[in-house]
Amino acid sequence: MKVIIWGSRGSLPASVRSETIRYKIYRAIEAAKDFDLKSKADIEEFIDTRLPFAIRGGYGTNTSCVEIRDAEEYIVLDCGTGLRDFGNYVMQSRKIPARFHIFMSHVHWDHICGFPFFVPAFIKGNRLDIYGFHENIEQVFTAQQAPPCFPVPLTYMQADIRFHRLEPEKEYDIAGFHISGIAQNHPQISYGFKFEKDGKKIVYSTDAEHKEDADKQTYPFLSFFSNADLLIFDTQYALLDAIYMKEDWGHSSNMIAVELAIRSKVRHLCMYHSEPTYGDSALDKIHRDTVKYASIYDDSYPLKISLGYDGLEIEI
User: Fold this and answer.
1) Which domain holds residue 28?
2) Largest CA distance in the chain
């Protein structure tokens, strides 16, 4: 089983300016001055082992979209701009016609705006089942592609598109996974998803703000996250931003992510929904600070911590 991050930014896509690329090139060349890089292997080793991730790569620009890859049928979480890249991958792999199970945390714009550019939705023979707990999901998807907002209506798409309303108090068996949801503190409410199969557990919990009641032992997210092999968690803001500038915006910090993950005995925490104004170097620092905080909070617990980026693949 594998999880692929196709989009990891929150709120809106992040831009990459030309001066940022120039800065990365400069830093890489400057770092290479003291090395004798004669072969391709030398260069690749230098890039992979000597350059920080913020210089050799980057955390990406796309908004929320995650794939759980386990079987012939595709499982997708949210339809942000990362959905476009996922769709292009599917078309290049030529594994069509295909069936797609798409689970929506909520229908804010950054989580739906990739759908009009999802090529498999235009291909006859494909089937798209779109699931969510909100009652207006089909209405929102239709309105997004209605004039004057978009030139191509939803009805023009040739795939068999079906919308399914889920109920929070129920559990479901879909595409080989046992699935349940939980309501989250976010404007107009978002929902987290729990996917379980063959003893493995993946939790997708984005667009959620955890406040003072998170300290309680009865906090429901502790049992929802409990013993997850992977927890994908909204860490849009650094702690100071979350507390002093953006309280009640519906997002969480890296620190609360660590605390809830360790208390829930999560094995791997993937920080997600990154603030689009944070550059790669800033996100690198946030990742380092998060790892350091985990060792301070509980140095006996071996929590693995990743910071999601476009293209990240996680083996479960």
Assistant:
1) 18-56
2) 62
